[in-house]
Amino acid sequence: MKHRTLAIGLVSLLVVACSKAPDKSPSNPTQPSAGSTSGTGTPKAQGDHDHGPGGHTHQSVSIGESQSGPFMVKAARDEGALKAGAELHLDIEASGATFTSIRAWVGTPDAKGSRKALGEVEHADRPAHRHFHVEIPNPIPADSRLHVEVDGGDGKTHTASFDLKL
Description:
Layout: H1 2-18, E1 60-68, E2 71-78, E3 87-95, E4 101-107, E5 117-118, E6 120-121, E7 129-135, E8 145-151, E9 157-162
Antiparallel strand pairs: 1-2, 2-3, 3-7, 4-5, 4-8, 6-7, 8-9
């Protein structure tokens, strides 16, 4: 009876351990994030563009660059039409000072009706370069722009905005 109870306990432990979702945190870079590929250029089930072995393999369009406090912010987006309710893929780089995070959104400066997206480091050797999947609001507010907020880690944020030419 004692051995049977021990065996049932071990089987239960294995079932629980094997059902744990994989860690997709930035500290575990071996796990792909949503929208990434297997390294062969084939998008994962949730992905909608190619993050092939060399990074993105799409065509980018420069949105521009803007100085915001100590940061020079450069932004580019995937080429193509922008549609309300769709996802916008961005590459943003901040230079000039150290920072802790970059967030971006499409809409008004106060982000009302928009969702802020946190940029992800895609390449460890380029930590100032971040990739974003930003939701375009539906409906798109009048005078919408791309807003980029850089957190300097000192309690101050600096915001740059760019014309999306909607």
